[in-house]
Amino acid sequence: MNIDLRVTAKDDLLRVIDFPVDCISIGDEFCYHRLKTVDILKGMIDLCIKKKVKWRLVTAFMNSDACDEAFEKVIALSNAFGTFEIVINDYGFLQRISNSGKMKNFEIIAGQMLVHSIEEFLWVDEVVSKENEFMKRNWLLNSFINTVTINYFKEHYNLKGVELNMLPYTAASAEFLNENKVDVHYIDKYYTMAVSRKCHSTKNAGVQPSADCTSLCKKKYKINLVQTYEIGDPRKKYKNAPEELKKKVHDWIVFGNAIFREYDAYPDIRGQKQNSIILNYQFYNDHDEIKYRMQQY
Amino acid sequence: MKIMAPVASIEAAKTYAKMKIEEIYVGVESPPHHNMKHVTFTGRSKTVPGGGIAHLASFDVLKEVVTICHDNNMSVNFTANVRNLPEELNLSYVEYVEGAIGQGVDSIIVGSISALLLLAEKKYGIPLHSSTFFYPFNKYDVDFYKKFGVRRMILPTALRIEELSQIASYIRENKIDMELEVFAHFGCSNINGRCNIFHNPPSVCRGKYDVFSGDNEPARTNFEFIDGGSDCSICALEKLLDNDIVSLKIIGRGLPISVIGSIAFAYREAIDKLKSGKGIHEIRKELLERAPWWEDSFCRENRCFYIASNMSKYYV
Fold it and tell me: Distance from A125 to chain B by nearest Cα, in Å?
């Protein structure tokens, strides 16, 4: 397996640049503010090049203004460094690049906002329990398991890879993707339960999201459900959550505007030489844990 | 600006026709040979929590609903917005969509990129609507979706009015054949299509949590930490009209007609008053006098769609 270490800040990159990884990915899938200025990004990329480590850029979903800013950044980086891989989490941003006629400057990896599976759904068992194995297997596959989609994105948008969670049925779809010449990049430790437009970390701190708040979303929060909410009588809208639901919604992790859940188990994917495992720096408690996870692959 | 309501019965179609609702959205249970016991191509399971039925039992019933709607100048938007479409289900999905087209529906709502590509290749000549599951936050999404024959984009709820205006302006300035639809009422804390805790009430996302920092130190107790939900667009209606929004969708597949009807009535009344020249503040005042529970449920918590709110100031 190739190891990809994901960072957002130069400080974090300096701490891990000598780790024996195959790639450093720079940026965040869920918040545009974590995509730094061109100068900072150039400095980070220069460091990777100096250390002879492959690098790629990660971009989030964006409103129109952020899309235009991000476009200027990636073009500037392309002018400086040539063709590079970029993780895309917004079809509009992908189209912005395509509209400019500069698609050939980039190799695209479809990120988690575009590639997802119903297997992540909290009540997935309720949804598929009555289905036969054929239907269940198909229902739990991810959104890119279709040659119509793969062929279209390869032809029009230089698709090279996709990012996936490592849940059982999703991991099983890697073979299909590899057969269709699409690399798979698995996300280690946590899978995504939900992404909000609202940043939970900044709201908790009473600070509005901006380029200056990115230290707040590095802080890990763990949440346990206590009460549910129901629209209606304001005096009764919060009720104690049933115990069964509390067990399901327990020890969930929050970074910024995204909510995660830890895998119960890991599939054995070590033999998949063309594929990668993404270790998101902020997920781990310390460097020892990162090194331990690296050893598993 | 039209109102769109969910239909899961002939009774609902007749009720909304009497209320002068202009559009409905509706799905159908897949035929038996598709072997789908609980899952459907409609973007919902067969039943929703609480036991409500989210769609019609057969294409024959759909035909009756289409007849009722067309007799009352109502458009029928067909829900084929399953979030993911794997290759082995392509044929079943196409059969499902063709079944609906055969009954005379006016558009197909699509929620999966694979489904969109598949239907674009078929060139049925019927408008496709891109579901909110695609969460188009920027104007370049218009260029992306129009290539597939999408003629209406359903926008995400977590959009500021300025951002919505940028999309609407882009369409206008570039003379693109694309309509915009928004949700009128009942929103999600999370981005639709990237939420795995979406559930009918009671809500988990708006619930209260014990929160711990990374060191397991208590940070907050019994606190609505991940609540990001907005619910009401009454005060945004004027701006939505100014930005060429063609349709306001009321969500609630599987909810009782009485609930959907009361929400739809409020928006119907508000739009009619706006068009007759009444100001939005006065319209809101009259609504709250008529239905004080509206203020309790939505206004007090500042759960406003599209205009500045307690939630939107924390949008990334």
Answer: 11
